[in-house]
Amino acid sequence: MKGSPLAWIYLVLAGLLEIIWAFSMKKSMGFTLLIPSAITIGTMIASFALLAVAMRSLPLSTAYTVWTGIGAIGAFTVGVLVLGESASPTRLIAAALIVSGIVLMKISSSTA
């Protein structure tokens, strides 16, 4: 497997923090509310820092794709489950394609 197991843990944590900052940014009302704005900025910094550490041993293409994919799927899930956004069949298919891409990127980095 390319990259250390710890790098993958950092990458997943970075992706999870991306979900939090995306949700907090939505709740900040365009950075007009202090607490959600502070959470957004803090989790953004932590997410980028963990991504940077993971990239020490993971390829850029893999790390960035997995990070954005986790964030995209997580934000989609939070949007549907917490914010009541649409879960139409087309959106669900799109989400499934993103997950498929993340899995393929992970598999391809293991064989590279």
UniProtKB/TrEMBL annotation:
Keyword hit for Transit peptide: no
Membrane topology, record value: Multi-pass membrane protein
Gene3D superfamilies: 1.10.3730.20
A GO biological process held by the record: xenobiotic detoxification by transmembrane export across the plasma membrane
Gene Ontology terms: cellular component: plasma membrane
Main localization category: membrane
Localization per Swiss-Prot or TrEMBL: Cell membrane
Keyword field contains Transmembrane: yes
Matches recorded under Pfam families: Multi_Drug_Res (PF00893)
Keywords linked to the UniProt accession: Cell membrane, Membrane, Transmembrane, Transmembrane helix, Transport
Molecular function as annotated in GO: transmembrane transporter activity
Chain ranges passing through the membrane: 6-24, 31-52, 64-84, 91-109
InterPro entries, per the entry: EmrE-like, Small_drug/metabolite_transptr, Small_multidrug_res
Family: Belongs to the drug/metabolite transporter (DMT) superfamily. Small multidrug resistance (SMR) (TC 2.A.7.1) family. Gdx/SugE subfamily.
Name of the molecule in the record: Guanidinium exporter
Gene: sugE
